[in-house]
Amino acid sequence: MKINIHRVNDAYHFEAKNESGAKLHLDASPDIGGENKGFRPTEALIASLGGCSGIDVLMILKKQKQQIDDFKVEIEAEREKDKTPSLFSTIHLKFILKGKIDKDKLERAIELSIEKYCTVAKIIEKTAKITSSYKIN
Q: Which residues pair with 134 in a beta bridge?
């Protein structure tokens, strides 16, 4: 894996580009001179957790022939207070799905993702408690 990061402006706006050409913009908060032109690096990490786990859950449910009409992940994360660095302490993933989905299969897919398959979750769980919930519409 190779990622290249290029500074876009005179502040803290960066563009990350992977080997296939996909781009991700990163920036700092305005409090320290950023311009809100991208994700904060910590936001990108949490988004990566949602994407990683989301891919796992969808893959498992598709193999089980579940009908998924819509899929979302809402993530809430808390960081340590008054510490540098300020690590994540708790992260909650809420999976919101629409379709004909067996509740037990969904619960198992989420469990397998967070506890076994999602590389990002396995990295983050060393410092943060990861919890989950779901809603089927």
A: 95
Residue 93 · residue 72 · CB < 8 Å: no
Q: What is the pLDDT of residue 2?
A: 98
Query: CA–CA separation, 81 vs 67, rounded Å?
Result: 42
* Distance (Å, whole) CA 97 – CA 86: 32
**pTM listed for this prediction:** 0.94
Rg, the chain, Cα only: 17
DSSP structure string for 56-105 = HHHHHHHHTT-EEEEEEEEEEEEE-SS-SS--EEEEEEEEEEEEE--HHH
* Parts of the chain with a pLDDT under 70: none
Q: What is the pLDDT of residue 16?
A: 98
